[in-house]
């Protein structure tokens, strides 16, 4: 780990495109500095294989984990969803506590709080009690007030124009 | 170049952090799909060496160019600034016309229009008359109405909270 005084807690939220993509950009920037990165994806999506392929060129520095099981968050089996969310969050907590990474991305973590699977305060507590040298990025819509309060940097990605609403299909290599 | 019917014109604008970072994320996602990417930076900044190091692992697919000469856009030599901006924009136009890339990032291009160095309509004309298979990403504050009108996707990165305003210094590997 690089020597550092203060890690940032960064939040990318809002209904626009670019949240996960910005986290991915930060990931590659950090990798470029030789930093160790752990990218934890809380919602599995088939559109993310571009990153996985790109990540292979950094397997000395980057660890990538997918939690959950392809949630739609409309499952009929709420209890199972909550158990899987809990398991994912506990894994993330372990990673944070171990303090082995310079940057930890918790991609789409906000949904766990939005859907009341994990209490927002519990999330904030774990994030704020981390080793302070670690950078954390949280992405997802609807970041709660307590998370925003605790964060050092918050950007709202606001949708101004969306291609799919204009009848343009998702594009390989670009899909958000 | 991959076979593709419709390239997207994407704009990341607004006063918040994450615009260039999202473009960088898209870049790496595209690279992960084996696509060819040209990243043209219109404002040189010493904080971008993380990308440059990361880019080295993709030198088979990614070309990176820095235009300008470290503009502050507060130069006393406006004529020289305009000449350099014009030169940079003409280079970008050539790259677009050659149609050799799947994705072209025009990082901080909006400033050329904001500072009246290049007419916004000229920019929009070149972008909309590209070979339609090419994806283009434009970043920068204050994207003009005509650019937004022409774009397929526009996200405004809105600053909710900024670390430097809270007295936290820029961090290696994270600086935006």
What does this structure look like?
The structure is a homodimer of 176-residue chains. Chain A has 176 residues and is α/β, with parallel strands linked by helices. Chain A has one domain (9-158): Rossmann fold (3-Layer(aba) Sandwich), CATH 3.40.50. In chain A, 35% of the residues lie in helices and 19% in strands. Chain A contains 6 helices and 6 strands, in the order βαβαβαβααβαβ. The first copy, chain A, has a 6-stranded parallel sheet, with helices on both faces. In chain A, helix 2 (49-55) links the parallel strand 2 and strand 3 (62-66). The model of chain A has no long low-confidence stretch (mean pLDDT 86). At the A-B interface, strand 1, helix 1, helix 2 and strand 6 of A face strand 1, helix 1, helix 2 and strand 6 of B.
In short:
The first copy, chain A, is built from six helices and six strands. With 176 residues, chain A is α/β, with parallel strands linked by helices.
The structure class of chain A reads alpha/beta
What is the class of chain A in the CATH system? Alpha Beta
CATH architectural label of chain A = 3-Layer(aba) Sandwich
Question: How many E-type strands of chain A?
Answer: 6
Write down the Rg of chain A. Answer: 16 Å
- Low-confidence parts of chain A lasting 5 or more residues at pLDDT below 50? none
The percent range for helix content of chain A is 25-40%
Biggest sheet strand line-up of chain A? 3-2-4-5-1-6
**Relative strand content of chain A:** 15-25%
CATH domain fold name of chain A = Rossmann fold
What's the overall average pLDDT of chain A, rounded? 86
CATH homologous superfamily (4th level) name of chain A: P-loop containing nucleotide triphosphate hydrolases
The rounded distance between the terminal residues' Cα atoms of chain A is: 30 Å
Element-by-element helix/strand order of chain A: EHEHEHEHHEHE
Q: List the quaternary state of the chains.
A: homodimer
Describe the largest sheet of chain A.
6 strands, parallel
Number of individual domains of chain A: 1
Shape by Cα distribution of chain A = globular
């Amino acid at each position: 780990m690089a020597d550092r005084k203060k890690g940032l807690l960064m939040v990318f939220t809002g209904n626009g495109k670019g949240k996960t993509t910005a986290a991915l950009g930060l990931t590659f920037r950090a990798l470029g500095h030789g930093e160790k990165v752990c990218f934890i994806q809380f919602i599995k999506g088939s559109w993310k294989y571009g990153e996985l392929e790109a990540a292979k060129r950094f397997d000395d520095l980057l660890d990538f984990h997918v939690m959950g099981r392809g949630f739609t968050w409309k499952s009929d089996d709420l209890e199972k969803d909550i158990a899987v969310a809990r398991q994912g969050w506990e894994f993330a907590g372990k990673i944070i506590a171990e303090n082995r990474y310079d940057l930890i991305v918790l991609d789409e973590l906000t949904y766990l709080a939005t859907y009341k699977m994990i209490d927002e305060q519990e999330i904030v507590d774990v994030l704020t009690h981390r080793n302070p040298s670690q950078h954390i990025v949280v992405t997802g819509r609807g970041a709660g007030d307590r998370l925003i309060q605790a964060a050092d940097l918050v950007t709202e990605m606001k949708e101004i124009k969306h291609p799919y609403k204009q009848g343009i299909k998702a594009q390989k290599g670009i899909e958000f």
